[in-house]
Amino acid sequence: MQAFSDNPWFRSLPQMQAHALVDAAQPMKLGAGKVLYRQGDALGPSTPAFFGLASGSMKLSILNSDGKEGILTVIEPGNWIGEVALLDNTRRRAHNAIALDGCELAAVTAKAFEALMRDPEFARAVAKLVAARLRLAYEALAGQTLQSMRQRVARRLVMLAHGDITQSTRGRMHVSTSQDNLAMMLGVSRPTLSKELQALAKAGAIALRYGQIEILAMERLRVAGQLALSDPTGQDDFQPA
């Protein structure tokens, strides 16, 4: 599947392990608004547990006791998700995964995933996947206490332009995530986000379009977010959205 071949993590897999992963997966479809799994769901051996998104988009989110939702990220085609519950002792989901539109997935059961993990090369690749996502989580936590709101907004826009958790080196000129979703990702109110986006637009870094944000000057956005060019997304090869 082309979406997987374009994904940096999947592309880094040795050919034998990549083929084994795809061969272990079963095709699955999910309609817009449908839940792939819920926070707290338990895994059994035959439970579909590790998912590759072939098409569509999904949000990963957490609900607090009052029902307030916080969006962790929006998953784009090519990404694989679900590894955390398979690796910790709880065997329970830590968040929700919900389709934002019609999705096609490749689903690997918990038992099949365990069999794949017996291969040291595949296990090493999964460890790198988890480490990369843990690094992003640490950066997000640090941002909440050490960065200004404008820096946080600018950084997240840079990440979204590179597929967020995909962290592709190929940046896009348009970010299609809604401002409501972006506000929930950052844990801020819509008016606060709007104020910061207007400031970035005034600085010539972005332009606000209907249903999307256009990146006009990635370098200015990086400066606003205090991102170094040594960052993994520092070498931009822009492509159409």
Helices and strands, with pairings:
Blueprint: H1 2-5, H2 8-12, H3 15-24, E1 26-30, E2 35-37, E3 48-55, E4 58-63, E5 69-75, E6 80-81, H4 83-87, E7 96-99, E8 103-109, H5 110-116, H6 120-146, H7 149-161, E9 174-175, H8 179-186, H9 190-202, E10 206-209, E11 212-215, H10 218-225
Antiparallel strand pairs: 1-8, 2-7, 3-6, 3-8, 4-5, 4-7, 9-11, 10-11
Helix pairs in contact: 7-9, 7-10, 8-9
Structure description:
There is one protein chain. The chain is of the alpha+beta class. It folds into two domains: 2-119, Sandwich (Jelly Rolls); 147-225, Arc Repressor Mutant, subunit A (Orthogonal Bundle), CATH 1.10.10.10. Helices cover 41% and strands 22% of the residues. The chain has a four-stranded antiparallel beta sheet with strand order 1-8-3-6. A four-stranded antiparallel beta sheet has the order 2-7-4-5. Strands 9-11-10 form a three-stranded antiparallel beta sheet. The relative contact order is 0.14.
